[in-house]
């Protein structure tokens, strides 16, 4: 089992990143690919290998805490890897954990693919089991990684990534006018869009 991989990120797409290490390009699915950037600097990605009879997926996370929350989420009936990635894409694990501990179903059903039944199952399965993992973690403010320098096609890339997470065209059309007023990079658009989407659900 892989704990993490260190290498150079050579590709960032709406659904995955490619991390090159020793001549091998690892295709890694992540909650928000645009949280990663192509640079000459060696980067560390925490990984999880998901294996089923018909598929093998290598998933990657920026932090150990994010990966541990992912592993907890996929133990819940009704939440697969894609659903867990969509939840983590919000970038605020502390809010997800807080909602579970408070039994706040109305917050949890805002995520793609999470209905009332799944939200209740998350609470039943995970309440009281996450505090030890995250009580000492200082999660960054949700605005802390917003940048003001736009990249070509940054908004289009963000929209594609949100579609890959399961958000509908109808939902994205509602928030696009707000996004178009801003001047962010792709990660910045993603974070703003996710906040808006969570509010409207």
Give descriptors for this structure.
four-way junction helicase activity, five-stranded antiparallel sheet, 201 residues, OB fold (Dihydrolipoamide Acetyltransferase, E2P), hydrolase activity, alpha+beta, single chain, NA-bd_OB-fold, 42% helix, DNA recombination, DNA polymerase, domain 1, 5 strands
3D structure, described in words:
The chain is α+β, with helices and mostly antiparallel strands. It contains nine helices and five strands. A five-stranded antiparallel sheet has the order 3-2-1-4-5, covered by helices on one side. The chain is globular, with a radius of gyration of 17 Å.
Annotate the secondary structure layout:
Layout lengths: L3 E9 L3 E6 L2 E6 L13 E9 L4 E6 L2 H10 L7 H8 L4 H10 L2 H4 L7 H11 L4 H4 L19 H11 L4 H12 L5 H15 L1
Antiparallel strand pairs: 1-2, 1-4, 2-3, 4-5
Helix pairs in contact: 1-2, 7-8, 7-9, 8-9
């Amino acid at each position: 089992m892989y704990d993490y991989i260190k290498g150079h990120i050579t590709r960032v797409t709406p659904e995955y990143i490619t991390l090159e290490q020793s001549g091998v390009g690892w295709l890694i699915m992540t909650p928000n690919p645009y949280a990663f950037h192509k640079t000459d600097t060696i980067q560390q990605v925490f990984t999880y290998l998901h294996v089923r009879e018909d598929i093998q997926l290598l998933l990657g996370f920026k932090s150990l805490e994010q990966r541990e929350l992912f592993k907890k989420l996929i133990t819940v009936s009704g939440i697969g890897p894609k659903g867990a990635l969509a939840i983590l894409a919000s970038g605020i694990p502390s809010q997800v954990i807080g909602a579970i501990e408070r039994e706040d179903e109305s917050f949890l059903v805002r995520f793609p693919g999470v209905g009332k039944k799944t939200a209740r199952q998350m609470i039943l399965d995970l309440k009281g089991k996450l505090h030890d993992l995250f009580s000492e973690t200082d999660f960054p403010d949700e605005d802390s990684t917003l940048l003001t320098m736009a990249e070509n096609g940054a908004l289009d890339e963000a929209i594609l990534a949100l579609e890959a997470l399961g958000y509908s065209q109808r939902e994205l059309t509602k928030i696009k006018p707000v996004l178009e007023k801003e001047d962010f990079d792709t990660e910045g658009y993603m974070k703003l869009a996710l906040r808006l989407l969570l509010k409207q659900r």
